[in-house]
Amino acid sequence: MTGKRYGSLDFLKITVAVSIVFHHYQQMLHVKFDNFINFCDGLLYLGVLVELFFILSGFFMLPWVKRISAETPGSDFASFAAKRYRRILPMTALAAVVYELVCFAAWRFFPEARSPYSAIDLWGTVTSIFCMQSGWCFPNPRINNPTWYISVLCLCYIIFYFVTWLAVKLKTRPAYGYIAVMLIGFAIKMRGLEIPFADQWNCRGYISFFEGVLLAMLLDEYDMDKKRYTVLCIGILAVTLYAFRNRFIGEYYSVVGFLIYPELIFLLLREPVKKLFSSKLWSSLGNMQFHAYLWHTLFLMIIDMLIHAGVPINTGNVGTMFLFAALVEAFAAFSYFVLEKGMDRLYVWLLPKKKTAQSG
């Protein structure tokens, strides 16, 4: 599994991202459908879709587990952090600044709509730019609020690296450390803690991210033929039901996070399903979903501003919601192929120049 990219998991990312866009569309614009699926306040609570993003983020850390464990060149923390932040930080920072400017414009020019918006929060903008707005040691300014996931994810990356590094130094399996972090997450959740680095945002990342790492290690170590796949699924079901029965974790999250999500990933990694999504197109579409997640609340805020300005927008129409999602995906394509890749080319262009200057 090391170093591979699976189109089937990219398809899963696309499905989850679009569902989250639908969820926030109905939540922020106060929309409820009579003859269509309600992604907010419907039959199922879709807020836990973010947990699936955490699981997938941890799942893709398997190559780094092996690199850090083998102490290969380029596996130091600086290289690891640069690799992660090189993509996450610039786009998250740009989205935070744009969000605050639009938010201030709404507050300044639409007095009747001031309740959801505010003047620019400088300190909140700084913490958001550096992906530290939630789950760290600062009050959450709720700037582009869905990016709380990115903030907690960055913290999970740091914990992941040092837990793996410590396991190497102690000559033990890193899986023990990952399980320990998950148990800490459960303790935070059960105790309802709200302290720095241990609040109800953190526990969602600690549990799900490291669950994803463990799932990847499990699949990497064992040949998943039909017999072992069946035994594994039965084992997951038994552990989940035991945890629920003994009230270790909440009913809904236990079923979704520890039963449905893992088995869904296992299903998508079956050979016939992987072949179905073998096109490289899925990889590009999958990469775009980070940008869709990053920008969609900004566009929802703009729609809300237009409604306050008297622009007739039929938000209660299902077609409008699908059109909105299509526009978000179109901008996500622009953000990925133009903005992110442009910044990446600039980074590559500047880096050799810096080295040349130092050598001279």
Strand percentage: under 5%
Fraction of helical residues: over 70%
Largest sheet: none
Q: Work out the radius of gyration.
A: 21 Å
Report the total helices: 13
SSE string, helices as H and strands as E: HHHHHHHHHHHHH
Secondary structural class: mainly alpha
DSSP E strands, number: 0
Q: What general form does the structure show? A: globular
N- to C-terminal separation?
Answer: 42 Å
List low-confidence stretches.
354-360
On the 0 to 100 scale, the average pLDDT is 85
Could you provide a short overview of the structure?
The protein is about 70% helix and about 0% strand.
What does it look like?
The protein has helices spanning 7-28, 49-59, 62-70, 77-109, 122-129, 148-170, 174-191, 202-221, 226-245, 251-268, 271-276, 281-308, 318-359. With 360 residues, the chain is an all-alpha fold. It contains 13 helices and no strands. The chain starts with 6 loop residues before the first helix and ends with a helix.
